[in-house]
């Protein structure tokens, strides 16, 4: 049922229903990178509230689950290739808001950091400008810096400059390392029995919940007062990687064997693994282990959006508990000796 009609600056008339899954906000939003970790959560928030969501995709199997995030006809797919300008334009030409979440943690034989973070961002911005889309939200990364020793951070910084050059009133968002269900941060630590590391885990980070970042992006997209601003979205506390590993070990009750390697040795090993078919770790990811997170004091934060980010301590158990051994799922077994004894007669069988 349509309750009201109102006008938002530089936006179309909005129709609102009961506020549930079958309502329509009146917005159409394009989410580049929707099949990624953050993209999943943002697409779910947009579609579940009735925003018509356009999902550009490259791989068929990675986008299918997004269809059910919204009601019938809400989530729409457009096949896209970052090197095909026409496909990018087809993805944005009917939208009121465009979110660019595309990024790569490691380069591949098909796409370098520069291809995605700089040229990809530039082409999306050009398409947004061509079709006069009202809002463009570009998601960068913490420590984005054109002069960084890390290729990832450097290209992220150059990507911001490319976007600003084309669309000066674009909103730049730099989220910290994110955790949550399906992440590759806490779950990667929890799933390992042996973990290679560098810098003796002295790297400092301010992890943030992906739920909070997705909520912030949705609010930024709808709020015209965020135009032209830069936001840094990070958690309320700073931790070393050693402290984060300790929290994960306590939550999972699994002993993690950690091997610290010299930087050059780890980068050499990482370079050799680039020839393996599945993703491992890149030399640039090793480089970032030696770069602490730096907060831009001039950037806006969660506080400017009226959002209070969650504490890592409150969510780490919920995020990694499924990695616990079945003997650790309950607290009635007090010692390792008792657990070893129980292994003699406790068996897990599929029903």
From TrEMBL:
Lineage: Eukaryota, Fungi, Dikarya, Ascomycota, Saccharomycotina
Superkingdom as given in the UniProt entry: Eukaryota
Identification of the protein by name: Uncharacterized protein
